[in-house]
Every structure is written in structure tokens, then in C-alpha cells.
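Propose amino acids for all 128 sites.
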């Protein structure tokens, strides 16, 4: 099950953080077709956000065809995204790289900016 982490300092709308984290979990194979998303109540208890925010995120995921709400049962993943399992060797390589970047004095935002720049260079014209 996915555990949402809400960062109020990012400027990214809370519901979008839930959408993004759900998609990331799907890409990493942490959420697979048929898996149930946490209930709005469970997310609210874990994150102290408004239940309507959770429902808005789930509606957005449903609009994109990624999940489906089943009345009285919950919200379930409909399909998978990507092909980057959490245990991919690329993850270990990125972890090693992140350690080196941190040891070199880079902060999280610096690493994120650098990584995004590299992605933009090598994946021109592709949307995530």
C-alpha cells in the first residue's frame, strides 16, 4: 500500500502531490492493477489533510483512467505505468549517485534540479 507524504513547502497543490505519488508508486510496481488505494479516511488520518482533497486526487486519477472507484468497496488501480520496478539496478545506481552528490555538498533541491536538467536533455519532447 502507498503511504502519502505531503510537503506543504513545495507550492504543489496537495491533491497533485497525491496524484504524483500514486503514479510514481505505479511506475515502480509498488501499486499494480487490482490493488486498492488507501481510503480517504486512512489518508486523512496519516496526513491531516481535508478528505475532499483526497477525493479530488482520486477523481483525477480516475479521469486519467488509472484507477476506478467501486461503490462501497474503494478505489482500485486499473493499470500499471512504466517499467521501472523498485528493485531495478538503476535504482541502486541512482542511490549511489545521490550519496555522492550529498557528500559533495549538494542539497536535495540542487540534486532535483540537476536530475531534471539531465532528464530534459536525454528525454526531449517526452512527457512523464
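Proposal:
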Amino acid at each position: 500500500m502507498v503511504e502519502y507524504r505531503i510537503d506543504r513547502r513545495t507550492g504543489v497543490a496537495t491533491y497533485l502531490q497525491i496524484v504524483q505519488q500514486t503514479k510514481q508508486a505505479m511506475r515502480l510496481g509498488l501499486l499494480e492493477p487490482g490493488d486498492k488505494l488507501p481510503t480517504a479516511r486512512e489518508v486523512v488520518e496519516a496526513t491531516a489533510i481535508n478528505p475532499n482533497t483526497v477525493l479530488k486526487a482520486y477523481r483525477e486519477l480516475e479521469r486519467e483512467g488509472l484507477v476506478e472507484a467501486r461503490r462501497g468497496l474503494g478505489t482500485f488501480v486499473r493499470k500499471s505505468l512504466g517499467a521501472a520496478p523498485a528493485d531495478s539496478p538503476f535504482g541502486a545506481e541512482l542511490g549511489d549517485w545521490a550519496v555522492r552528490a550529498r557528500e559533495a555538498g549538494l542539497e536535495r533541491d540542487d540534486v532535483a534540479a540537476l536530475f531534471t536538467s539531465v532528464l530534459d536533455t536525454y528525454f526531449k519532447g517526452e512527457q512523464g
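Residues 89-103 form the longest helix (15 residues). The helical segments are 14-27, 40-47, 51-63, 89-103, 108-122.
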